[in-house]
Write a structure and sequence with these properties.
about 30% strand, about 50 residues, YbaK/aa-tRNA-synth-assoc-dom, aminoacyl-tRNA deacylase activity, 4 strands, YbaK/aminoacyl-tRNA synthetase-associated domain-containing protein, YbaK/aa-tRNA-synt-asso_dom_sf, 1 helix, alpha+beta
């Protein structure tokens, strides 16, 4: 699922979240997923972006 030509960055606070909601690529659909599963699928860089 991860695209090697795209860098995805999540704030480190995402690692402490449970269920999150994110876009699906369609205007009429939203994805509900556990943050840990999303991190596993997307393999983002985890950075401290909010401080």
């Amino acid at each position: 699922m991860r695209r090697p030509d795209v860098v995805t960055v999540f704030d480190e606070s995402v690692t402490r979240m449970g269920t999150v909601y994110c876009g699906s690529g369609r205007a009429d659909r939203t994805v509900r997923i556990e943050a840990a599963q999303l991190i596993e699928l997307v393999e983002p860089k985890i950075e401290d972006l909010s401080s």
